[in-house]
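Issue: ligand-bound run for PMV - logging full I/O for the record.

Environment: standard queue, default settings, no custom constraints.

Inputs:
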Amino acid sequence: MEIENSTSGQVKWRCPSNIALVKYWGKYGRQYPSNPSISFTLSEAHTTTSVSYEYSKEKLEDIHLTFKFEGESKPAFENKIKKFLDSIRDVYPLISHLKLDIESSNSFPHSSGIASSASSMAALSMCLLSIQKELLGEDNLDINQASNIARLGSGSASRSVYPEIAAWGQTEHVSDSSNDYAVEYTESIDPIFKSFHDDILIVSADEKSVSSRAGHALMECNPYSAARFQQANDHLGIIIKAMKEGDLDTFGLIVEKEALTLHALMMASEPPYILLEPNTLNIIREIQKFRSDNNVPVYFTLDAGPNIHMLYPHQYVTEVATLKESLRSYCVNGKIIEDKVGQGPIKL
Ligand code: PMV
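Outputs:
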């Protein structure tokens, strides 16, 4: 490393969350995905992270770090980040020469039912890459490296460093795809998909009974895993074709099948478990009925939890507003977070 003097500075990034259309579920080795996935980058649900850094010429034995979340010290988070930073010394050698003060905040309240790992790991990674750019005098921020580092923190975070649509995992359906990092999907997608809304219906804001980490691990012994990994790859090919052709029906079919398959895999794990709530099913039924009664392309998807992501193109906002109001009674305190496809990280 060619850095002569002690140097210090501050960087700040805002990074969004994302919602997978074809889901990553199951991993191997050092956080590699067992199947490829593709997602919409969101806009309103985001994490803002600022990092003050001090470079020291001599190599530091320990990770030097303070961490504040929304203005308060959080020793548990701080330890997690320390461990994470310690684990990426090989892919981010600069870390052995940095003292960091990190401050982070989310646009959505803690325990709102929205997972923050994708946006927070992506924001931290963008900060680390900005520091590298400043210290090494690089011309451009290496976005693939940022995605790779985000992946090591949380798999789905690898997709949050790109605008609009991102794909992660090696597949013949996406050129330049990789298991190490996600890529932005830029090939001639019908503009209607870039106008999509994602209303997040909060059925429960409670902590999940089984974490995503544990869920991924259970895929190792799931009797359906081999067929699932093949299916996800096939779904990726089908959904990309549908998005290129503006085929909303096929898009919706795959998105809903993916959501239900994700939860079916949980129910078929050893031990089996259920993260869906009665109101998740009530909402699913109402969305399907509204779609067929009114011929409006509105679809649901799910993360590894009970909350519904309701997806529809911008031109149907007025029609869907009626449905949305009728679904509020199924949500905790009537809570719906209104999001949409977004433009990716912003340097502040
Ligand atoms: O990134 P993780 O380890 O939290 O796993 C995320 C898994 C899903 O959200 C269920 C699917 C996905 O691809 O985002």
